[in-house]
Amino acid sequence: MKKKLSNYIIAAFFFNIFAIMCVGGVCILMVKDMVRNISNLEQRSSDISWLYDVNNEIQEVVFLLHKQVVEADTISVSLKVVDEVRTDITYYKQLEEDDQFIDNAEELLLLDKVMDNLAWMKDTILNIQKLLSSNSPLSEKDLSELADSGHNIRQLTENINEVHFKIITKLVNESYSKMYFIMFLYATSAVVGILASSVGYVVLTRKTITPIIDLASATERVASGDLGIRVGVDSETEIGTLYDSFNVMTEKLQEHEKRRDEFNRELEKQVMERTSELRASEQSL
Q1: CA-CA 20 to 30 A from 102: which of 14, 55, 165, 231?
Q2: Structure confidence by residue, pLDDT tens digits, 209-219
Q3: What's this model's pTM, rounded to 2 decimal places?
């Protein structure tokens, strides 16, 4: 059963398209991950800056309330700042809980501790407010607790930032790994493509181009009168069918030429015999 050369070409074409789509799909997915990592890096950098601002606000509250003379306005401003910070951290914590791409368990635990210290700080400020309202002197304990809560919050924000730095380092390493893998995939695809093209060129030359050149040469020899030439190829494609058809054609042409020569010889023989008869008859007369 003959095989169609077009089937091989179509199969090679679809295989090439499939390989390109697979490589392109993998690269697109990895680039997408890298873009997401970049977005997370931007977010983590913004979070670090925000946490530094939060820490500065808390330390400012501690500084204001740690003075020997505390005014009522200072108390109200401090309470407002603490409430705003708690609201911001609650919102930030909700965002971190919704983030499914990064493991935030350690950060969430630290945020809970920050919230506890903020609640402790608010209670301390309220206690100071009561003392001021009753014209009682501020106790060293309240100021010490206020300083301790501020120190704890600063330490916790630093720990949270360390978690962010670890996440940033992880994201950067992942991005580098994906970038190197994409480069490796590109290099591999290029090498495989070059090898496949080389093999395809050799196969196409041996199975198609060279047989066609040989067939063209054989056709020229037939045109010059050499009907005894035969061509042979082991191809099971249309090239093999073409070669078989050429051999059948030259064989029939050679057979026809042979019959024509025999006919001419027979005709010449009959003409000579008839000429001899005519000469003998003419001599007899």
Answers
A1: 55
A2: 777 777 788 78
A3: 0.55
